[in-house]
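Subject: ATP synthase subunit F

B.,
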Amino acid sequence: MKIFCISDNIDTNIGLRLVGVDGLVVHGKEEVIEVINTVRNNRDIGILLITRKLAKLVPDIIDDLKLSANLPLIIEIPDRHVKKDEDNEYITKYVRESIGIKV
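Prediction pasted inline below.
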């Protein structure tokens, strides 16, 4: 299975390409929807990385993908503009919502 990244900046895309992760840089809601639909139809992709900024553009689609048992697995990754404290809070919130334990 492959990993694919949808990013809003070239730096994230280049960094992930260095470790073998293909991806695209997009900026608009329509572009995000188009790429997500393409990835959903590609059976080779098992994990979809998407920056939080882009995930916020299409929360209904992201939630639908996360709640379904189908591939790809959706993982939101921090933007390069996120402050350190916000990133730590995001991880804590994600764990709390996922397993119901306050960390």
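The domain at 2-78 is CATH 3.40.50.10580 (Rossmann fold).

T.
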